[in-house]
């Protein structure tokens, strides 16, 4: 797909959707989805959003904000869930 047809707004929304799927499988205990993989995806999304050719998208910003809020909520739960999410920095 050419860059003209696929802007950063679309890629950010797609990456956030992928992040949500990763979180689902992370919680279900899939050994291939690690805290490191989730952290890397968060960093990729942040980089895409801050790139010079990125167009601000309030919907993508809100989507990411809710997802990061969910991660923070899981960290605050404590116990096994909190420990699982602890390596993820938001």
Description:
The protein is mainly α. It has one domain. Helices cover 69% and strands 0% of the residues. The chain has helices spanning 8-27, 35-50, 58-76, 79-85. The termini are far apart.
Name the helicity range: 55-70%
**Proportion of residues in extended strands:** under 5%
Q: Gyration radius, to the nearest Å?
A: 14 Å
DSSP helix count?
A: 4
Distance between the termini: 31 Å
The structure class reads mainly alpha
**What is the number of E strands?**
0
How is this fold's topology laid out?
Layout: H1 8-27, H2 35-50, H3 58-76, H4 79-85
Helix pairs in contact: 1-2, 1-3, 3-4
In short:
With 90 residues, this protein is mostly helical. 69% of the residues lie in helices and 0% in strands.
Keywords:
mainly alpha, 4 helices, 69% helix, elongated
């Amino acid at each position: 797909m050419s860059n003209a047809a696929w802007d950063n707004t679309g890629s950010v929304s797609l990456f956030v959707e992928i992040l949500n799927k990763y979180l689902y499988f992370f919680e279900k205990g899939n050994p291939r989805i690690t805290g490191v993989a989730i952290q890397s995806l968060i960093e990729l999304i942040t980089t895409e959003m801050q790139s010079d050719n990125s167009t601000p998208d309030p919907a993508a910003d809100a989507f990411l904000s809710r997802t990061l809020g969910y991660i923070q909520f899981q960290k605050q739960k404590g116990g096994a869930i909190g420990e699982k999410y602890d390596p993820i920095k938001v």
